[in-house]
Design a protein that fits this description.
370 residues, alpha/beta, 9-stranded mixed beta sheet, 6-stranded parallel beta sheet, 9 helices
Length: 370
């Protein structure tokens, strides 16, 4: 949609900010604080008391009684939804009904149907609606995309990626137990794989066709807080392969837990050179990454430093989780004020949900459980 009148600074209200940690506290708050174009004005949490505590700890002027109170405030221009996936739909719809622009974390909805309804509602309301697929905002990935487009590796021939999910290993804690329940909409497939598929689409293009194999290799997991064993009904291994619409053959393998060897390795091979991206976690959207490459006539990979123009927000950040979110907010402001379309929208999220629908065990893809 086109830009509408943008206040400066943009007043932000966060739904789901907690003093006990979490994505809002670890990434959104420091990212917003680094950008003068935004001002954090209100917070809401699971209870009014929790909101008051968060407002005090993070020095936010207003603690909302609940989400409805927050979205109704005149000084809140952009509502940021950072709660668990099952609550996204009702909160996003309430914000849109209140006439607010929205930034919602990924996955947008608990399935394709919810995501589609939210995207349609945002279009009908003529509001900006952004989704937190912040790997697209990574300075390194945007530089990687441009190198390939400029012919650094010649014609791309193939790409392969392996990543570790961190969670979905042998143990978890109470806070993250919901990740092992398919009803939550938050899984190895929807979170790290979903973010990475979106980044790969930005760098190399969408899949023209794909197949997938999924498995539950650990059917039970230990909750280290309670000592109880929980039953797993989401995949902890998935392999996706196919051909991208730009031509290259592609393969991604995500596995649960942490690897003692490689937690993120992404290679792109071309007729004239190669690129290799490595990182400390398979969550590409928050990983600390390094890009290496070799081009025509070269014989050894060398680190490729990201030019300064790709950094849209103040750097460096001590916490790599902040970098991509801060760059995303810098792009959000440009989209709001200049009418650009740099940040993934709800309609982009629907496209990603459509791809993920093709990967579910209920689809025509093989799935095994032992």
């Amino acid at each position: 949609m086109t830009a509408h009148t943008t206040p400066s600074p943009v007043g932000v209200g966060i739904i789901g900010l907690s003093t006990t940690g979490g994505w809002a506290a670890d990434a959104h708050v420091p990212a917003l604080r680094s950008l003068p174009e935004f001002e954090l004005r209100a917070v809401s949490a699971s209870t009014a008391e929790s909101a008051r505590s968060a407002a005090e700890v993070f020095d936010v002027p207003y603690a909302a009684q609940n989400a409805a109170d927050l979205v109704a405030r005149d000084d809140v221009d952009l509502v940021v939804v950072t709660v668990k996936v099952p609550h996204h739909f009702e909160l996003v719809m309430a914000a849109l009904a209140a006439g607010k622009d929205v930034y919602c974390e990924w996955p947008l909805g608990n399935g394709l149907a919810e995501a589609t309804e939210m995207a349609d509602a945002a279009e009908a309301a003529q509001r900006h609606a952004f989704v937190g697929l912040q790997a697209r905002s990574s300075p390194t990935l945007r530089y990687m995309r441009d190198l390939i487009a400029a012919g650094f590796i010649g014609e791309p021939l193939s790409t392969s990626l392996i990543g570790s999910g961190g969670q979905w290993g042998g143990t978890t804690d109470t806070r993250n137990e919901y990740l092992y329940d398919a009803r939550s909409g938050a899984s190895l497939v929807t979170i790290p794989l979903g973010h990475t598929l979106d980044a790969m689409a930005m760098v190399l293009g969408e899949f023209a066709d794909l197949t997938s194999t999924q498995a539950i290799m650990r059917p039970t997991v230990l909750n280290t807080d309670t000592g109880q064993t929980i039953t797993v009904d989401v995949s902890d291994h998935i392999v996706v392969s196919g051909v991208l619409d730009s031509g290259p053959v592609a393969m991604l393998h995500f596995r649960g837990g942490h690897s003692r060897a490689t937690n993120l390795f992404w290679e792109v091979n071309g007729t004239e050179g190669d690129l290799v991206l490595t990182g400390n976690t398979g969550h590409l959207q928050l990983a600390q990454v390094t890009l290496n490459g070799v081009t025509r006539g070269g014989t050894a990979l060398a680190e490729l430093r990201v030019p300064s123009q790709y950094h849209l927000a103040p750097t460096p950040y001590a916490d790599s989780r902040v970098t991509n979110v801060a760059n995303a907010y810098a792009q959000v402001y440009r989209d709001l004020s200049d009418g650009t379309r740099e940040v993934p929208t709800f309609h982009d999220a629907v496209v990603r949900h459509q791809v993920l629908e093709q990967l579910t065990p209920q689809a025509s893809t093989p799935s095994t459980t032992r």
